[in-house]
Amino acid sequence: MIDFLRDTNEFIALNVTKTTELLFEINSKKTDMKDTKAINKDLILRERLALQRTVLANQSTFLAFLRTAMYFLIAGLSLRNLLKVENSFLIEMALFVISFVILLLGTLNYFKHKKSISENKKHIGDYQLEYYE
Out of 66, 69, 97, 116, which could bridge 102 as a Cys pair, Cβ 3.0 to 4.6 Å? Predict the structure, then answer.
């Protein structure tokens, strides 16, 4: 009878120990999930900020194209008025055409990248938050 009680006590102690280990493991996983949520929110913030930087870089690039086109336009306008050059009309028209082409390329580049940025915007972390919540 004493052996039976000793075996029963050992069995109970073993089960309590295993149950405690399982509960500790479950609690640590919950803590890990909370940390994961915080990490995911941080990553989502970084992605959103990176996207805003990309939008600003795209706008800056467009403004650089616009500035360059204006330089060529002003060069064409000032050529006739400031200098007396033979065939100034041809050079002036060439500068106007270059200015227009640069402006057109800059505009196309801007809208192409704007579309690409907006398509990639939908991939930022919202689905990750739904998965972990």
Answer: 69
| Number of domains the chain contains | 1
| Residue with tokens 């990553």, as numbered in its chain | 43
State the sign of the Cα–Cα–Cα–Cα dihedral 88, 93, 96, 102. Answer: negative
Using CA atoms, how far apart are residues 48 and 36, in angstroms rounded to an integer?
18
What are the structure tokens assigned to 82, written together?
Answer: 């400031």
Residue 15 lies in a domain: no
The predicted-structure confidence for 52-111, as pLDDT tens digits, reads as follows: 899 999 999 999 999 999 999 999 988 878 888 788 889 999 999 999 999 999 999 999
Q: How far is Cα 119 from Cα 31, in angstroms, rounded to an integer?
A: 34
> What stretches of the chain show up as alpha helix (H) in DSSP?
2-82, 88-121, 126-132
Pull the structure tokens for residue 33: 């999930």
User: Is residue 111 a part of any domain in this protein?
Assistant: yes
